[in-house]
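Sample pair:
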Amino acid sequence: MEKYKHEYGAEQIQVLEGLEAVRKRPGMYIGSTSVRGLHHMVYEIVDNGVDEALAGYCTEINVIIEKGNIIAVQDNGRGIPVEIHPKTKISTAETVYTVLHAGGKFGGDSGYKVSGGLHGVGASVVNALSSWTEVTIARDGGLFKMKFEKGKTVQKLERIGDSEKTGTLVRFLADDTIFESLDYEYEVLEKRLREIAFLTKGLKITIEDQREETPKKAEFCYEGGLISFVEYLNRTKEKIHPKPIYIEKTGEVPVEIAIQYTTSYTENIYTFVNNINTIEGGTHLEGFKRALTKVFNDYARSHNILKEKDSNLQGEDIREGITAVVSVKVKEPQFEGQTKTKLGNSEVTGVVQSMVNDALSTFLEENPQIAKAILEKCVSASRAREAARKARELVRKKSNLETSTLPGKLADCSSKIAEECEVYIVEGDSAGGSAKQGRDRRFQAILPLWGKMLNVEKARADKIYGNDKLNPVIVAVGAGIGADFDITKIRYGKVIIMADADVDGAHIRTLLLTFFFRYMRPLIENGNVYLAQPPLYKLSKKGMEDVYCYTDEDLDKAYKDLQAKGIERETLSLQRYKGLGEMNPEQLWETTMNPETRILVKVTMEDAIKADEIFSLLMGDEVEPRREFIQANAKYVKNLDI
């Protein structure tokens, strides 16, 4: 092996002083330098106020997005200590903002029993990644201020006045040489702050966006805590029991749980550790699921709901229609998993399991009507699961997935390498015909669908397997559905929904996306689902190459560009495409299927809670919330044919 010739001695070992390490490798500390990382900066400062609230000293946090994307976060906690730190010989406040891993969250005898921060490095990291930071502290009868630029102190802490109040105000401008964008998304911050307010009972959080002429503002304060959280999540669903079941335990590992069953067929359990959303679950989720299964089976046996000959209910039967939030506070959490959002502390399993066993058993005994209603649903789910199993076996026998007997209408591609293959799920036979003729047969497959498919939001799995609209999709994707779904078996790297740009097309897209979200969620999580973007307009003129426009804005721009070339608007022929079938194969290839020229929108799942809420609202039984959503969002709709 050829050796790379370079010096390798003490001089070549880089030691990054202070916060230089953060500026050199920002992704290590805030995840990324995208908008997600930008929002994380806000959360880090807010978390410091939340830690004060968890310690019992803060009742209010105010977040303002000022003009110029400056963030201001003010809390009424105790204020950061201002005295000289014994080790650093500078003020404690300056130490917190300039020394990595300096803070009140480390070690058993720290200033906080539990802490929301994953790393405890929030203040110094935000400071390092900001063009400038100002910190104003009210404490010990005084008002103190200090300033920083790119993590370096430019104005040491000095007393600027007196104050009878306590608290901390942090203002910062993120560094545009580090972040891809400084444009904060109000809705994203609002959602996270609402979540924090639910998880921190009684804490009042406000957010205000001053960037527009008319400021946006929201205020959150939930005395009900997790009960309010579950009620909020279920506001678009029909409930089996009116009030959530609430369980709370104090002690070495405080646990809070709220549970409510709905008539839906999906399971929604959200878990948090020290207010961190553990999207991959972990030991607290494991303890909760174990207890839930045991308690309901024990109750069903002791009250003769399950007979001696009956099999036990499985966990998935008992969790059908459940909405639950599990929140634990752990002194020294250990996180694992791909995104470091899976709790690994083994002792938490037993704590949660024992607590849920005792509290839920007592609740069911004291509320027999609720217990009976929930168990009726569980037994019904068990029967449906068995029916689904039989239907699944039937589908396997019929289609013999192992030997890939594919749907008759599927025009498959010649390549068998999943990563390079893509399947277009096309609305209607005529569009399917054009797509089949226009495609690149080597890597593009076409699956035409006709008519409205099943709304899976209102159906159980046993109804899905035999469905003549969905079964071809299941077989074509080739990875099963629900608990059996195996992402490694997918036959296509891209699953592309191609529907007309009208109301019917939008409905079909939503029905398919609901199906993927509920029964093939890893397909979305893995980034395999896309929406094709067919053009809305074609501008043409004899002797001129056709111009395709995908939005009204594109059309306006095309008119202006052509006018600049001396082609007047009146001389152009405008075609408005009502459906994919209006395009011939060559046009469909060039505009919508050619990887060199097409526009694809990847379907992402940034936030499962929000996604579940939208699908439940748009596709569920409750009419009033859907009407309110449509009225509130109608003004944002473009290109809707009526």
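The longest strand covers residues 152-162.
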